[in-house]
Amino acid sequence: MRAVAFSVLAGALAASTGTATARHAGSAGEIVFVSDAASSGAGEIYSLAAGTGPRDVSNSPYQDLYVAVSPRGNSIVYWSDRGGAWRLFVARPDGRGAHSLAASTTSSAPGGVPVFSPDGAQLFVPGWAGNGALVETTTGAARVLPAACALAVVSWAPDSRRLSCANGPRVEVFDLGGRRLHAYPASAAVWGPGDRLAVATATSTLVFDAGGRLLVRYRGGAVAWSRDGHTLAVSSPGRIELVDPLRRRTVRVIRGLKTWRSGAQLTPDGRYVTYTAPAGLPRIEPVKGGASRVLPSFGGTWSSTGRYAYLRLLPGSKVAVEIADELGRRAREAARFPFDPYAWNQLVWLRDGSRVLFAVSARPHNELWAVNDDGSGLRRLTANGLDIEAPAWSRDGDRLAYTAAARAGACGYCSSRKVVIADPRGRRIARLTPPGADDLQPSWAPSRRRIAVLACCDGDIVVVNVADRSRKTLLRRAGSAVAWSPDGGTIAYAGRGRISGVNPATAGTRTLVAATPDGADPTDVSWSPDGKLLAYTTKAGNLYVVAIAALDRSRLVATHAAGAVSFAPDSRRIAFATTAHATEENPTDLAVVNVDGSGLRPLVTRPFADAQPAWRG
């Protein structure tokens, strides 16, 4: 009986392939798939100026984050995972000449934002070797600092020979060799001109000279120095005091509610102080007195030339970078980007104030792409910002169905998924899923009049009439994938360790594949267009083909398979996503294999998540 069953399977495979060694048979066709290549989730650094449009400075498909500008303004430094490991890259401000400065000690995450010494010769790099390190900007040589700097807020002394590490209830000052020079029972520290150090305890600020001698004490916590050293902002409940430690006098007091406590920031020229008012609005006013005004946004940054760059939230999970004068007036938009409050957004001015760098990332989303079945003609189809999954062609190749989810603020792309009917270019014609419903995994009936979907989140198989969108639940808690047979008589579904089928007319069920050869649950199932074969993947990463005439004999045709599979129109080849060369930024590629397991070849290989192929009939 075993020999007979194997012969039937072998015959069915041979009939589909023509010969056991057939490769790339049939006419050229189009494969639509989903990819996160178009999203900014990887992280990118742009150079912006109002009215000129953005320039991509990092210009790579990898994650580029945490940018710092050198004090002389002739270089930038940022983290990138290009090459498979996180490294510091240095480049000119326009992005040219990028090269690795030094390698981090971990491949799973970058360090923090690098901090240049005032002379530009050193970088403090948080998170290096689990602590922090000093890196020489010319050679890339690194010296690991004591553990006190591991999670600390670090600030350089103006002489570039010392730095302070504020970590919890203690501030420690180290030289470049990592030798501790001073320690203070304080929670924060800011360096001022003349190598003066202001350290803040719970109730007061103490200002020390370069030798560690106490110069003056103030009530409240130090938050910012002016560049000339004549103004120190000290914050305490109900007030911000602007003092001159050199002349030991109070310049101005800004008062608020007794329960109000605000940080403060001084503009680069020292003329203005900014703070958060008791009502929660950001305000700016002259240090020496005068009217205050509301700033257009929180978290902005000033250039050396007195311009203010900030982010303005827009509808549709987008953000505009705007550039205004020092007081936030006469703003002009520089560029718009996707916005994700849980991702990375950073504004840093170039030293000369000509442009501002914007480091941005957002959670990635899938768009529709297409490629010819020989790997040529790679092109993007959709650009609507929706997260698209599970593309499926109608039998005549004239309609696409896929699921789409919109961004929903902090939630990301976790809103309800709707089945969309589109033209061959992915442009929406109609939405099939009604409000309040959530559908997955569409599969067309041969007539194109109905579509089978899995209703989220119980795995119910629902048949939807395309014309009037009426819905009929065919089977409850069925599984994780559905595929309508070419003859229309069976909807195959994967679940509970097997492949089953349900009759769309009678709702009668039968077992197609009783158990997978590797014992793992099936994850996807697909019919060959001639109706003679089933292909399915499993959680173990295997791709199997089984002949309908011998359903007890599945044949392994590929390993490292992930998710959806799709037959070519000639029923001789299968497109699938593979994890064979997976990396963190490149989890899946596309590949094609003959149904007998021969002729395995890459289709799309690039540093993105390319998956869920659908071969056009």
Structure write-up:
With 617 residues, the chain is mainly beta. It has 2 domains: 2-20 and 30-38 and 364-615, 6 Propeller (Neuraminidase); 72-297, Methylamine Dehydrogenase, Chain H (7 Propeller). The chain is 3% helix and 47% strand. A 4-stranded antiparallel beta sheet has the order 35-34-1-56, with no helix packed on it. Strands 3-2-33-32 form a 4-stranded antiparallel beta sheet, with no helix packed on it. The protein is elongated. It starts with a helix and ends with a strand. The model is unreliable at 1-27 (pLDDT under 50).
Largest β sheet strand count, sense and barrel closure = 4 strands, antiparallel
CA gyration radius, whole angstroms:
31 Å
Number of DSSP-assigned strands:
56
CATH T-level topology of the largest domain: Neuraminidase
> If strands are numbered along the chain, what order do they take across the biggest sheet?
35-34-1-56
CATH architecture of the largest domain: 6 Propeller
Q: Given the helix and strand composition, which structural class is it? A: mainly beta
Distance between the termini: 36 Å
Total helix count? 1
Global mean pLDDT? 87
Unreliable runs, pLDDT <50, ≥5 residues? 1-27
Q: How many domains is the backbone divided into?
A: 2
Strand content: over 45%
The best one-word shape is elongated
CATH class of the largest domain reads Mainly Beta
Task: Please name the defining characteristics of this protein.
about 625 residues, mainly beta, Neuraminidase, Methylamine Dehydrogenase, Chain H, 2 domains, four-stranded antiparallel beta sheet, 1 helix, 56 strands, about 5% helix, elongated, disordered N terminus
